[in-house]
Specification:
heterotetramer, A: 328 residues, alpha/beta, 5-stranded parallel β-sheet, 44% helix, globular, B: 328 residues, 5-stranded mixed β-sheet, 11 helices, 14 strands, 36% helix, 21% strand, binds thiamine diphosphate, binds magnesium ion
């Protein structure tokens, strides 16, 4: 039972349902994104967040709208969890003028300052110091905003992360480093690329660091709440390692996956699925009628379908826009 | 000489395979190049042949592996450092420019850095601004580094073999769009010298200097131009630095008109250097100004409706050539 | 307008002081810029005025502080990132090129990056190959970044104030040899717009386009040339990108001869772009080929007996101008 | 008594005297270098190693001639400790053709492959991955050479160091990271630039790390011996923090030093001087007659004077050499 033993708050059906809905929305969004790719509607490729929903939803559930996040190439989940709108996201993935970036960014560069999303990023590790800069900015402007840097285990290979953590700690910046450890960087298992213990990488800079089950949204939420409160209170940066797993390929085109076993994939999907986890908790601990969840799922699926259809019908940006936005 | 038809990607792999077979000092290091055979799948099988010690999968540490390349090169090895996307050469500039390029000179000729930096260039895959750049102009600005940008499987193989045997740091740019393109290569071993350009098509009316994939756009433009009674000479420098200035100037003096096409951004890029070299060297022979066609000076947009307009193409080359020849 | 005589370094400090006084969003971050007042001693006292929170001494983390600058800039601040030597911009290329330069475009115009990257250029101090480079050509190749290279205290102050107020990333290159050089600046506040060149000396016989300290070499050359009956016009673009092409072309059309002087390496550098712009735009007016004088294409050597030969100087400019004017 | 309590080998007058001589030679070399600067004979500036002699001498005393070192901007000590010759070093500092780099490198770039010195380096942290590359090279070539990376505490700010340590540990490379912690990076005390504990920065990568009194050559030697033996035996990289102090300015021009107190300087010089330490041990524990040391010092001083005079009389490289060694 996910929230047992993590000494979390007493079951709150309302709140849990909302977490469930958010995670489910991300999963459906990604399934639809994959579908759009397979059906040849989406230009380029995209990286799906399926399996990792609890990380983005758990962390963002404790953030304020004016808090910042920096995201990664696998950014749809962060974007939605922080409050982005389905239609403008699909439109961006499809390269339409109605997209969040008027079609100029695409899947890997969705940004939405209205929800505090400073942007997905195509450069592994690239956003870790950008998040520190957002934290410094909040501090200089005298607000109590917090900046969260989401990054994958692969970013542990980038020196930039360490420069960022050093300065964040020196200046007690309100930054939460969220490492989404899904065991692989592209096609390489990370035991081949990471020496030592991940948490020690943060502790070496005297940064509070802890690990949490990234498939348990309640556990993620609780851990994030603690570390974000700390940062907001001026107690400096923290590091949260979320152990998780991407069910699908590195990107939508990675279907064979010779670098890992079907057994491993099945084990994660069947025993540790964040949605199934929470669904069980909802029924077992809050006595929520499964029908409620089924209905919720139905609504979300309709939302997704409508948003995707609307996006498919939207217009591509006219060639005349190519020269816009090079300079402000 | 009997020939075989292979892809550009195969040509790259064959060059590395042959050089690794003949010289135990040669090894390759990069991300996902081993078991995965690179994200472009051009090295499939190579690690089986040479083992993980000579085809090294690295963490996502571009700066670090470039530095490791420099250190290995000055101590007797011939490293090939694979930087997945040319956009990430932004992270190896210090090692390439302050170390690799200057070590031989700063040491008064004592140390040498026989290292090859292989990376990609080229847009056209809806990969957006951080995975589509052609940044070969930067290293071409740096004395001490040689820069190669081949256009055909044959040139790619012969030039890469020469680059690996060269005692200087060589940056080798491969247009990722060309990996699957086929071409003829000799059955028997051959080398193509660095620093020597190649006339890909002869003509008397106008010289079109083109690099990498732009050679193919120029050749198809030349076909169209021929049907319009304009005989275009297509010259491929092959090595961007050192540049085969004699060849370019001689061609322009012969045709009295010149157009320079390269996929890097036009401003302060490759076309500026080549155009100024020709405008100076052929000044008294030119009937029209030397024109340049680089990529549009904008970050590469994601939406295909925008991306396509940023890259020079055959149609645009035809138009420009016609106007230069007074046939517009 | 009443004027004062101050040094180039003082002009830089005054610009920053005035902008920090008028706008609380402006802050500066860099190595040894606080208590030490920078290694060039141009910021003495600034930290006393604005405190360690707004004049931030950073660890030796160029990539990190550039990223922090980007993050602070997109969240409401106007950071000035100080990179001690231009040679170390090799370490900030990723943040400047993949993040700062593209964020506005990739976000479809939503996010802006009002950030100034200040750094140095110029040889002549026997500082050897890693502390003497002029690398302003690289960022000039990148759409989305503006690049400034002032030649006088007056231009430096007015342009830096405009750069700080600009909503785009601006790279500001200061020739370290000029910090002590005096010049006249207006007593009252003034701005100099980015993108506008300046005719530093009028003449009819030849146009000498020069940047940064090369403007002074060109002016002294113009003196000598005058005594030989050659009236040279010295044009200073001031902003390397965007380039004031109209001004340069108009001058060359007027004089029918042009020479471009810049301290960056000549190959694939600033002189190539400017020369090709002039050779094209003034083609039908030119009596001689446009000539270029960049730094010699070698790493900057330590020994003064060698270093001096690598930098363009007045004597060389005079010779080149004479031959262009057929007076050699 | 320096070597008491460190359980070192039984006193060996011969060996200790040699260590003493090497340290004294470095100190005299630096005094002379300063003198040459002050008297206006040396171009540019240089960074003196005075006060830190025990680190380079202690570490290099356990290295073989074919082992590698990478050095820093403060590199004279490393260079001499590894076996460089006085005359060619002075000649390089003075920019003469007889210098180790024919005058092209100068103080900050002295390299001498004959003694395994891969070069001083003007880029803080730049050589840490070069050393890893040398270690990888030794491993691939099947030798049992070890590579030592000397770097200052300031290099802890550079991400490059962490990328290097991660890979060195992953691949068990024979690399010793020697951090010369002299408490300052230029003019900034390092408690302002280093978060957390230095040794943890290495331990986070599962690298054996220890600290030693950098003013006690016997302690440094003993620690280095252990870690180098380990590396040579294939047990992987190690990290040695040597606490030390530079008696003089950051460079020869830094004479006022407002960033630290005269008391602090005096305390280090009077209570912890590595030369005085060892001299005491020699007399107290090996009963060496002070006269022996005085005589030794006399000889070294003469060597230094002769080498410097000879270098002063040597010729500068002819301007014709400026174009040599750009390419091998
Ligand atoms: C600096 C850089 N190097 C390499 C890449 C290519 N690349 C894209 S995603 C990726 C793997 C990232 O792994 P991880 O950080 O664990 O994120 P995950 O994909 O597992 O979510 C790589 C190597 C990149 N985008 N940026
Ligand atoms: C990448 C880089 N940034 C900045 C500098 C300028 N710089 C030269 S030495 C130095 C301080 C280095 O401190 P440390 O590593 O502790 O060595 P120390 O001088 O104390 O021996 C700095 C900042 C440089 N050379 N390289
Ligand atoms: Mg991962
Ligand atoms: Mg130090």
């Amino acid at each position: 039972m996910a929230n047992e033993g993590n000494g979390g708050p007493p079951p709150d059906a309302e709140a849990w349902l909302e977490l469930y809905e958010r995670m489910f929305r991300i999963r459906c969004f990604e399934e639809k994104a994959n579908d759009l790719y397979v059906r040849g509607h989406m230009p380029g490729i995209t990286h799906l967040y399926i399996g990792e929903e609890a990380v983005a939803v758990g962390v963002c559930s404790v953030l304020r709208p004016d808090d910042y996040i920096t995201s990664t190439h696998r950014g749809h989940g962060h974007c939605l969890a922080k409050g982005a709108d389905l239609y403008h996201m699909f439109a961006e993935l499809l390269g339409r003028a109605d997209g969040y970036c008027r079609g100029k960014g695409g899947s890997m560069h969705i940004a939405d300052q209205d929800t505090g999303n400073l942007g997905a990023n195509g450069i592994v590790g690239g956003s870790t110091s950008i998040a520190a800069g957002a934290g410094l900015s909040a501090k200089l402007r005298g607000t109590d905003q917090v900046a969260v840097a989401f990054f994958g285990d692969g970013a542990l290979g980038q020196g930039q992360l360490y420069e960022s953590m050093n300065m964040a700690r020196l200046w007690r910046l309100p930054v939460l480093y969220v490492c989404e450890n899904n065991l692989y960087g592209e096609y390489t298992p990370n035991d081949q690329t990471i020496a030592g213990e991940i948490l020690d990488r943060a502790r070496a800079f005297d940064i509070a660091a802890q690990e949490v089950d990234g498939q348990n949204v309640l556990a993620v939420q609780q851990a994030a709440q603690h570390l974000v409160d700390r940062a907001r209170a001026g107690q400096g940066p923290a590091f949260l390692q979320c152990t998780t797993y991407r069910y699908r390929g590195h990107h939508v085109g990675d279907v064979d996956r010779p670098y890992r076993s079907p057994e491993e994939e099945r084990a994660w999907e069947q025993n540790r699925d964040p949605l199934r986890n929470l669904r069980q908790d909802l029924t077992a601990q809050t006595r929520t009628d499964p029908a409620v969840m089924d209905q919720l799922e139905g609504q979300v699926q309709t939302e997704i379908e409508d948003a995707a259809d609307q996006a498919l019908a939207a217009a591509a940006p006219p060639a005349t826009e190519v020269g816009l936005h090079v300079y402000a | 000489m009997s020939m075989r038809r292979i892809s550009f990607g195969d040509a790259i792999r064959e060059a590395i395979d042959e050089e690794m077979a003949r010289d135990s000092q040669v090894f390759m290091i990069g991300e996902d190049i081993g078991a995965a055979g690179s994200v472009f799948k051009i090295f499939t099988g190579l690690q089986d042949t040479y083992g993980p010690e000579r085809i090294i999968d690295s963490p996502i540490s571009e700066a670090g592996i470039a530095g490791i390349g420099v250190g290995a090169a000055i101590t007797g090895m011939r490293p090939i450092v694979d930087i997945m996307f040319g956009d990430f050469t932004t992270m190896v500039m210090d090692q390439m420019v302050n170390q690799a390029a200057k070590t031989h000179y700063m040491s008064g000729g004592k140390l040498t850095v026989p290292m090859v930096l292989r990376t990609t260039m080229g847009a056209g895959r809806a990969s957006a601004a951080q995975h589509s750049q052609s940044l070969h102009a930067w290293l071409s600005h740096v004395p001490g580094v040689k820069v190669v940008a081949p256009s055909t499987p044959r040139d790619a193989k012969g030039l890469l073999k020469s680059a690996i045997r060269d005692d200087n740091p060589v940056a080798f740019f491969e247009d990722k769009m060309m990996y699957a393109w086929p071409g003829e290569v000799p059955d028997t071993e051959y080398l193509i010298p660095l620093g020597k350009g190649d006339i890909k098509r002869e003509g008397q009316d106008i010289t079109i200097v083109a690099t990498s994939s732009m050679v193919h756009e120029s050749l198809s433009a030349a076909e169209t131009l021929a049907s319009l009674g304009i005989a275009a000479e297509v010259v491929d420098p092959r090595t961007v630095s050192p540049l085969d200035t004699e060849l370019l100037i001689a061609s322009a003096r012969k045709t009295s008109r010149a157009l320079v096409v390269d996929e890097g951004c036009q401003q302060y890029g490759v076309t500026g250097e080549i155009a100024s070299v020709i405008a100076d060297g052929a000044f008294y022979y030119l009937d029209a100004p030397v024109k340049r066609m680089g990529a549009m000076d904008v970050p590469v947009p994601f939406a295909p409706s925008l991306e396509t307009v940023t890259i020079p193409d055959a149609a645009g080359i035809v138009e420009m050539a016609k106007s230069l020849c007074g046939k517009a």
